[in-house]
Amino acid sequence: MDFIETDIDGVIVIAPKRIGDGRGHFAETFRRDLFREKCGAYDFVQDNQSLSVEAGTVRGLHFQVEPKAQGKLVSCLAGALLDVAVDIRPGSPGFGRHVAVELSADNGLQLWVPPGFAHGFCTLAPHTLVAYKVTDYYSREHERGISWCDPQLGISWPVEPGRATLSDKDRALPELSGLPG
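Given the sequence above, the corresponding structure tokens read:
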């Protein structure tokens, strides 16, 4: 598998190598030794999946604060999505910048989003199934978020704000400038 650095330190695109034949393909999607070498000594403690029925569904931008900050290894099992990681590390030279990558069942790409980043995505196809491994357990007490359409972030989403399918919780998230210091 290839580990491809992005414009923001720590966010890495992982491209598993697919071996195909008449039956389809096989791919090694995770190896702890290679992941630790390329991404850091993180351990995954929980696997999550989300299914979004409609294209244009937005989930995020979510994160957890210390001591329960989560890193996420995101992949698409069915459909396609635009996956986004926003640097929210205080003092980081990349603070407020983002990486956006299309993940799909067809391309097999994965995105490593380390702790200190907000994460979200927009589905590009109906019935998109997303899987992500996380480095800490979900904690409602430590859960936070940023508005997905905050103009300060400059994310080019594939859906207009009035046409996106969102949860009530995600609709109410503050802009980056409204987060507590």
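The two ends are 38 Å apart (CA to CA). Try to locate this feature in the token string yourself.
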